[in-house]
Amino acid sequence: MSSVIEQSIETYGIDNWGADYFGVNRKGNLIVQAPENENFTADVKEIVDDLRKRGVDTPVLLRFPQLIVGQIRKLQTAFKKSIREFAYEGGHLCVFPMKVNQNRAVIEEYLREGSKYNFGLEAGSKAELYAALGLDQARDSLLVLNGFKDREFVQLAFAGAAAGKNVVIVIEKLSELDHTLALTKSALEDDANAALPMIGVRVKLYSKGSGKWEKSGGEAAKFGLTTTEVLEVVRRLQEAGQTDMLRLLHFHIGSQLTDIKRIKNAMKEAARTYAKIRKMKIPIEYLDVGGGMAVDYDGSRTSFESSANYNAREFANDVIYVIKTVCDDENVPHPTIIQECGRYMSAYHAILVTNVQDEIETVVESITPMELSKDDPPVVHELYDLRQSINAKNYREYYHDSLELREDLFSMFNLGLIDLEAKGKGEVLFWDICEKADQFAQLKKYVSEEFDDLRRLMCAKYLANFSVFRSMPDNWALEQLFPIIPIHKLNKKPAEYATLCDITCDSDGIVDKFVDLHDVKSVLELHKLVRGEPYYLAMMLVGAYQEVMGNNHNLFGVPHEAHVHIGEDGYIINKVIYGATLGDAVSAVRFDTSSLHDTFRRNVLQRIKDGKLSNADGSKVIEFYEDQVESYTYLTPNGSPRQ
Ligand SMILES: *Cc1c(COP(=O)(O)O)cnc(C)c1O
After folding, report:
1. Distance between CA atoms of residues 75 and 313, nearest Å
2. Stated pTM of the model
3. Which end of the chain has the lower number of beta carbons within 10 A, N or C?
4. Ligand 1 atom closest to Cα of residue 146
5. Rounded to whole angstroms, how far apart are CA atoms 258 and 208?
C-alpha cells in the first residue's frame, strides 16, 4: 500500500472510526468490507459510477445491510462471552427501537439476523406498533412498547398479544395502567385463557448519563415513574389480582452515552430497584437497560460527545458484572437483560454519497489582470504597494495595515468618494495580501491565532449537492460530528483546506466541524476541484436517526437509495429506490400537481392568445414545465428528468 494511501487513512481517521468496515483500495477508492470476510469488498466509487449509468445521480444513500448484521453479531457475541465469563444465570435479548430508523429495509434486515438470537422490536408510537404487528418476529422475542399511550395504543398492544406476540406495555403514566387493567378485565371476561400483554414499568433513576442526551436521565427526566408511582402500580396490580403481569423493569438514561462510569452507576441503581421489587413477590424477569450504547464517530475512544470511552465487550462486562453483584448481594435471581440498542446497530450501515458541485469564493480574485491607473484613489495605490513589498519579515505589520486600508476603502465607498471599479481593485489587492501573509505565517514554527483565523476565513468553501437538514440533521441541530471523506483520489495528497456548504438557501446549511482524533477540525483536507471532473464525498455513519429526523427544508426530498450486497466477487446492487421528485416534494406540502399544471398552462395559453408567444414555443414551455414533475429535487449534472 502506498504511503499516500496510508496517509489518507490517517488524515480521515478511517481506522479510528471505521470499526473495520471501511478501507481504501489500491486505486485510492473508499471500500466497504463485509463483516463476515474482510476480503469481500465493495468499491464505493465503482458503485456510484454504476448507479450514474443507470440514471441514479448523487446524492444517493448507499445501504449496506450486512453492516447491521455485523453490529448485531458483535453485540450478541460480547454479551454471550460476558455471561459465560461471569457465570451469569439470566439471558440477554435485544429489541430494536424503531424510532432510530423505521425504514423497511433496516427493520427487515434486523429481524432476519436478530431472530436467530430472539431479538425483537421496540415501538414508541401507535404507527410504529402498527408496523411491528404486521411483521414476523421470532417466537420468543419481545415487542416492548415505550412512549405515552392512550387507550387505542393499549388496545393495539392487546391485539398484538392476541396475535401471539410477547408484548410488554411499559407504563410511563399511571393512566396507561388503568387502560391496561380495564382491557385485561374485559379480555378475561370474554375468554378466561385470553393471551395478555405483559406489563413493564419505566423508572426514573437518580443517575444520569453523560453527553448530549444527559437530560434523558436524572430526577428531572421527561419519562419514568417515581418510586412512589412504582409502588402505586404494584398496589393497583395487587388490588386487581394481576401482579403476575408485571414482568419488566425499564430505564433509559439517554442516547450516545459517552462515559462508562455513568452507565455503571445507573446499572447499580436499576439493579437495586429490580431486586427490591422482586422481593415484593413480583415475578419480574426482565431488566431492560434501555439504549444508549454509543458510536465512536470520531474514533477518539474518549468521553467526548461524538465518541465513547468503551467498546461492546467492556459495556457487556460492566452491565453483567454490576447486575450480578447486586442480585447476588440481594439474593434474587439474575434477570434476563434487555437492551434497546438502536444507534449502535444501525449507524454504520448507511453512507450518503454526494458530489461537490462547485466552489464558493471568499477570496476575491482578479478576473482580468489588474492595471493601476493614476486616477485610482490613494487607498488603492497604498494597498498595491503593500502587496508588492510584503515579505517574511514585515508580513504581520503589512497585514494589519491592509486591514485598516480595507476599512478606509469601504468607508470611502459608502461616502460616495470612490467608484465601484476602485472598490473592486481594492478588494482584490486586499485578498492578495492576505494570501501572501498566510503563506509567510504558515512557515513559522508557531502560527499565531490571528493567522489561524485568517486561514479559516480563506479556506475553500465546497458546495456539496445535498441538504444538511435532510441528510445530516444532527450536525445542524446538535453539532454532532460525522466522518466525511472523499470516495476516490485517496491515493493523492489533498491540497486544499475546505468547509462544506449545502445547496439549501440557509446560512445554517454548512458543515464546518470535522472529526479529528485529538480535537475538532474546523477545515477538512480535500482535493482541488478539477473542472469537468466529478468529486465525490461520503458522509459516513448516517444510518441512525438522520434519515428519519431529516426534513423538507427548501423542499429537498429524500435522496435516491441503493441497497448493496458485498460478496466474493465484489458488490451487487440489490435494489434502487428513487428519491423524491419535484412532484413528490410539492405534494408533501399539500399542493396538487395537476392544478399547478392547469394554472401554468392557462397562463401560457393567455400569452399565446395575446400574441406574445408562438404556439410552438408555448407548447414547448408547457411540456418542459410538466416534465419537471418527475425530476430530482437535487442538482443534476445533465439536468434531465429521470428515465
Ligand atoms: C431512543 C431510545 C432508545 C434508543 O437509544 P440508542 O441510543 O439509539 O440506542 C432506546 N430506548 C428508548 C426508550 C428510547 O427512547
Report:
1. 8
2. 0.93
3. C
4. 13
5. 12
